[in-house]
Amino acid sequence: LTSLAPALLWGAAVLGYKYACPFAQRDDLPSRIATSAVLFVVGAVLIIRIHRSLLRDLRRIDEVAGAAQGVLLRPLPARLDGLTLAARRFSAHPAATVGGDLYEAVASDHGVRVVIGDVRGSGLNAIGTVAAVLGSFREAAHDEPALGGVLRRLDRALARDLRRRARLEHPSGGPADPGHPLAEEFVTLLLLEIRPDGTLLTVNCGHPWPHLLSAGAEPLSHAD
């Protein structure tokens, strides 16, 4: 009913003016011009109100999604087991404040483990996938002795999340179907393990490699 209210108001205003106003019932040119002007003004006012209402709804959704993303992407500690950490997220589009970027660093018995990734797409669905992957990483980073085991845990978490979304969004389909909309979903990941002796291990699943930059150096490029 809320979505139909503007149209009903516009229709009621038109009918009220047409049948209740004697001037609108006249058939001469000035009356036609006045009637057209009234209808134009009423329609413009309703369109402006609808536009403002949609903007308020979008801002509210964006604020909720941004707050959820802020909770998921917790600020990294400045120091972690002797390492200095810093993170900053940039959106590909200036107006896109909610995306599928993810990162986390965990100090485990196996060394400092870091995940950097990007979920395909953006918005609330991407945030749900980010939550599934990060939640799994925060546990697997402590439990799994090898990075390969961490990756398998993340892969299973992603598969569970896609099945959940498939049941919610497309009850008649299945994620195993090649034509299913979720069959194209993926997450690029880069797993790092920095051991106490300085050894660095990496597992890369389609994510851009990190670059080592020094003061005053030109930006580097990496070719696979």
Tell me the layout of helices and strands.
Blueprint lengths: L4 H16 L8 H44 L6 E2 L2 E2 L16 E8 L2 E9 L4 H20 L3 H23 L17 E8 L5 E6 L19
Antiparallel strand pairs: 1-2, 3-4, 4-5, 5-6
Helix pairs in contact: 1-2, 2-3, 3-4
Q: Supply the number of helical segments.
A: 4
**How large, in whole angstroms, is the Cα Rg?**
27 Å
Overall shape: it is: elongated
| Domain tally | 2
Q: What share of residues is helical?
A: 40-55%
Q: Provide the residue-averaged pLDDT.
A: 75
Sequence of secondary-structure elements = HHEEEEHHEE
- List unreliable stretches of 5+ residues: none
What does the oligomeric state look like here?
A: single chain
Biggest sheet, strands in spatial order?
Answer: 3-4-5-6
Tell me the strand percentage band: 15-25%
Number of strands: 6
| Span between termini | 55 Å
Largest sheet: 4 strands, antiparallel
User: What is the SS-derived class?
Assistant: alpha+beta
Give a verbal description of the structure:
This protein has 224 residues and is of the alpha+beta class. It has two domains: 5-69; 75-205, no CATH class. The protein is built from four helices and six strands, in the order ααββββααββ. A hairpin with a 5-residue loop joins strand 5 (187-194) and strand 6 (200-205). Helix 1 (5-20) packs antiparallel against helix 2 (29-72) and helix 3 runs antiparallel to helix 4. The longest helix is centred in the N-terminal third of the chain and has 44 residues, at 29-72. The termini are far apart. The model has no long low-confidence stretch (mean pLDDT 75).
